[in-house]
Amino acid sequence: MDNLAYMSGFGNEFASEAKAGALPEGQNSPQSAAYGLYPEQISGSAFTAPKARNQRSWFYRIKPSVCHGKYQPYKDAKHFLSAPFSGADLSPNQLRWSPKAPLKDHVDFIDGIFTIAGNGVIDEWSGLAVHVYRANSSMRRGHRYFYNGDGEMMIVPQDGAMTIRTEMGILAVAPEEIAVIPRGIKFAIDLAEGESEIRGYICENYGAPFELPERGPIGANGLANPRDFLYPVAAYEEFEGGCTQIAKFMGKLWAAELRSSPLNVVAWHGNYAPYKYNLKHFNTINTVSFDHPDPSIFTVLTSPSHIAGTANVDFVIFPPRWMVAEHTFRPPYFHRNLMSEFMGMINGEYDGKSDGFAPGGYSLHNAMSAHGPDSAVFKKASNADLQPQYLDSGLAFMFESRYVMRPTAQAMSDDTLQPDYLDVWQDMA
Questions:
Q1: Which residue, among 129, 122, 131, has the nearest Cα to 158 in the 3D structure?
Q2: How far apart are the C-alpha atoms of 349 and 7, rounded to whole Å?
Q3: Does residue 301 have a pLDDT over 80?
Q4: What's the CATH fold of domain 281-428?
Q5: Of 368, 288, 378, nearest to 329 (Cα)?
Q6: Is 411 exposed, middle or buried (0-12, 13-18, 19+ CB in 10 A)?
Q7: What are the start and end residues of each CATH 2.60.120.10 domain in the chain?
Q8: In CATH, what is the architecture of 70-261+274-279?
Q9: Rounded to two decimals, what is the model's pTM?
Q10: Looking at 292, 327, 365, 371, which residue is catalytic?
């Protein structure tokens, strides 16, 4: 399984085969598939979903997915949690955490997930969980694989490149890129060559799959373009020997033993597949007259909810860009928002903070909790000479949701939680 190539186009119907002739013509489930392969379909939507939202792919695999041992509870990923979160009182205080320290023990991607916050109802396909991850060991080392039956996973690397081996092929992903693994797709994550530790953020989306936002008056161009989303070509593993498949289902982790790799798909076709996107390809839209535009103008992907225009979760980035507006305050304005905002820092320095929001750190401002630039940034921006400026100090992102995000007890007791975050505004009182 060493084939690294991509197909482009968000949500396209793709077809790929690692062996010539493995894909049948005109019949998804033939009486006898080529090479003795087993046809198998994975559905990412209800069978009767509208055509625009109907997602499914056909696999032609060496062994069907039903070939596994009995699932037993898996206890090692003890910090990987799910909704419903703590029922304890939730304050409206602003929260911010510093980056976590490097790992000391050997930990792979699954065991290195640490849940920060979330909300929703898994069995009603709504809500989200936000996690950070650290890993200094590849899943290949233990012949371990994973799939998430509760939601899709958006992986946002902050430090260190990775290789994601999936049922449908390989994705090489590095900081300033993202990867999205759909619900149910099996995968394993390895450290890229030369990396000693990888770390970053995860949005586990229990709701509707991520899609491109409507552009509205922006028109046909701008934001994220479909052709920049990359999908893997077919590549498969074929080995006999013990391995472990970990599954997440109804908020719990389960493990089953397999006699061979589950990444044994020789060919596939469909529109339900993992993908990656380079955030540098985002076409930023911004003001050229006055006022700071709402952060929704920076939306890369959105998971819609049943309330039109109110997202289950939006993925928003704040990339390098020109700031040109006249007679206006340019950093993010003071704000109270119906939506809840989890922010992370990939690299550099966020233009709304002068200190304390470091790469690998994160903050949480829940519904109607006031937030905005710290005192030093406000004073500097209020007296700045308003010339065109290229803002190239860093790359930040936000998971924004209609749900109040309940912090986990482990996040609230973690030694990286900053007890003095509120101090950044106190000399303005």
A1: 131
A2: 34
A3: yes
A4: Jelly Rolls (2.60.120)
A5: 378
A6: buried
A7: 70-261+274-279, 281-428
A8: Sandwich (2.60)
A9: 0.96
A10: 292
